[in-house]
Specification:
Blueprint: E1 2-11, E2 16-26, E3 32-44, H1 61-67, H2 78-88, E4 119-123, E5 129-136, E6 141-150, E7 155-160, E8 163-168, E9 176-182, E10 186-195, E11 200-209, E12 219-230, H3 239-250
Antiparallel strand pairs: 1-2, 2-3, 4-5, 5-6, 6-7, 7-8, 9-10, 10-11, 11-12
């Protein structure tokens, strides 16, 4: 009965989307009424700021709870936490987690990782893929953070909740750095140096949890500090070669 057609074209140099949208309403008689809702509509793509601070100027969690009639942080309901994340502009990027481990770390140095009451980190499918579940005790919730360094695809991906940023690891003559801030509330920083002769990376990986714009963060966690992470062995005659060749071409 309803048919919606959308065409999207991206103009890279101008950072513009061009949208066409048609809606057809067809009745049982076989006759259709077509309505063009968008015709060459231009939408400017916003410039992403991965290091942004709080969405609310001079944000204070204490002031926010007070103005919302919350006397005890520990008694905040999930609905109130959701409201806080909406006000901070991070609700759509939030993803919780459980501090469960038990992953296979036989091939990795699990002593590199931290496991405390507030943070639990573990290796995933490789020794350069680590996931941390970070408790946010003031809000009675947690958030997932993942660092995935892919030596065979020559890239690194940092994910905070559902917010993701990636960088190329092509031509690593200097340290490659990544910084990702989830609305100023949770921040993560990564420095990666290539130790090509040792088939490893030298990695710094930190996480900060902040609740006040003008005060130090309530939690600062160093997951890795000058940690040596072994690279996976790459199959340069197969898919790994094709993936890296594509990345090199795109970064020239």
């Amino acid at each position: 009965m309803f048919d919606v057609t959308i065409n999207v074209k991206y103009i890279s140099p101008s950072r513009i989307f061009i949208l066409d949208m048609e809606v057809s309403v067809c009745l049982q008689t076989g006759r259709c009424d077509m309505n063009k809702l968008l015709d060459g509509t231009r939408i400017t793509v916003p410039i992403c700021n991965f290091t942004t601070g709080f969405n609310i100027e001079d944000f204070s969690l204490n002031n926010w709870t007070s103005s919302n009639g919350i006397s005890d942080l520990l008694e905040m309901s999930q609905l109130q936490v959701d409201g806080l994340f909406e006000d901070l502009g991070i609700a759509r990027f939030y993803q919780g987690c459980t501090s469960a481990s038990g992953h296979d770390t036989d091939k990795c140095d699990s002593g590199l990782l931290i496991s405390t009451n507030g943070v639990n980190c573990y290796f995933e499918v490789s020794c350069t893929n680590v996931t941390c579940c970070v408790d946010l005790p003031a809000l009675n919730t947690s958030i997932i953070i993942n660092l995935d360094i892919l030596p065979c695809e020559l890239k690194a991906i940092l994910t905070v909740g559902k917010f993701q940023r990636r960088i190329s690891l092509v031509n690593m003559e200097d340290v490659k750095s990544l910084m990702l801030s989830l609305g100023g509330f949770v921040k993560s920083r990564v420095n990666i140096r290539d130790l090509s002769h040792e088939q490893s990376y030298l990695v710094d990986f930190s996480i900060d949890v902040c609740t006040e714009s003008n005060k130090p963060c309530i939690s600062s966690i160093k997951v890795f500090e000058n940690a040596i992470l072994p690279k996976a062995t790459c199959n340069w005659s197969g898919d790994d070669y094709n993936n890296s060749k594509l990345l090199i071409t795109n970064n020239q």
